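name: query_chain
kind: protein
chains: 1
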Amino acid sequence: MKQPKMMSLLVDMAGTKKLRASMQQARSIKITINIDADSLSALRETAERTGIPYQRLLNNILKEGLASQRLTEDRLARIEKELARLKKKLVA
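structure:
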C-alpha cells in the first residue's frame, strides 16, 4: 500500500479543537512510568487485599505522599519563622 504524502493530508481543525478541549477537562491523564518489580508486586498485592484497582491505589498513595510533603514543608516554614522571631527577641 502506498503511503500518502504529508502535504496531501487534511487536518480536521474542529475535531482537533474538540479533542484538546475534552483532554483539558479530563481529571486524569495517562502516563508511562518505570517502577521496579518489587514495588509493583507489593502494590498489586495491596490492591488485591484491599479490593482497590492497583492504578487507583498508586494514585491515592501519590496524592497522600504529596499532601504529607506539603504539610511537612508548611510546618517547617512556620517553625523556621518562629525560630527567626525568637532569635531576634534574644538578640534584642
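note: The mean pLDDT is 87.
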